[in-house]
Every structure is written in C-alpha cells, then in structure tokens.
Write the structure tokens for this entry.
Amino acid sequence: MRIVSGKYKGRRIQPPSNITARPTTDFAKEALFNVLANRVDFDALTVLDLFAGTGSISLEFASRGCVQVTAVEMSKIQATFIRKIAKDLQIDTIHLLQADVFRFIRSCATRFDLVFADPPYQLPNLEALPDMIFENGLLKEEGVFILEHPSNISFDSHAHFKEHRNYGNVHFSFFE
C-alpha cells in the first residue's frame, strides 16, 4: 500500500499480516483521488472515513492537506496500526476513533464535507449505509458521500445517488 500524492507521496506502508481489512487497491485509490482533485479543495475539507481498515484512505486525505480526517475503525489491531503510522509520519490531522461505525453514525453531531465508507463487502446492511448517512445528517450542505462496494450492488435508484465509478473490481458510488 502506498500514499499516492501530497506531502507523503510515494511512502509505502506495509500493514501487518494479522490485519483482516481489504484495503482499496492503489489503482482504484489513485483513480478516485484524481476524480476528487477536480472537484474539491483538499485544504478546506473535513473528512470522515468509516471502516478505516488499514487507514489507507485517511492517510491519503491527510497527505493531501485536509483540515481534519476522522477515522472510525472497530478492530483494535487495525486501529493500533493506523495510530502507529500517523505517529510515525507525524500526522496530527487524523483523529482516530476505535468504535462501532453504526453506533458512531447514530451519535455523531459533527458534519463533514466528505464521508467515505469502505465496509466489508459481506456486511449484511451495507445497502442501508447511504440512508443512514443522510438520515443522521453527517454531511454539510453540498457534502459528498462515497461508498466503496461490490459489483453486485447498485445504488442507481437511490434518491441521493449521483454517479458510479468502477476500477477493476472496486466500485464507488457517489451521493450528494
């Protein structure tokens, strides 16, 4: 896994073998951030990274200069890894919460410019995530929610759906 661009561009990060997360591929991550680079000002963004896993997406946002990145990850092993990498790179804009994502969504009072979620593909209620994000008001006005999901799920008919992008086996749906 590597950081694609920004302050830490090119840094390779090797997650320990006991991490169970499925990190977004470097190819898909680079493509996603190329799309975002044409749409957002990273220096002004507050970001929420749900199911942070290895921290790859959080680290990418932090490297690009986001004001604040809140990462939520339930696994102690993965949360410890994210903390270690953020400390090693001296990143102070990542705020890590070791918590259940669904409880966090229900209790969060903060609003974000961008919410990214990369849940386990086998998550039983994965299709309910867009509704949960909007019902709990996690986005600022004109905010964007990006959901990484398997190919067998389509959000085209969702009221807030804007577009779908796929890069190999990685699929992103954008909601506004």
Remarks:
- The CA atoms of residues 69 and 138 lie 14 Å apart.
- The domain at 41-175 is CATH 3.40.50.150 (Rossmann fold).
- The first helix runs from residue 26 to 37.
- Helices lie at 26-37, 56-63, 76-88, 101-107, 129-135.
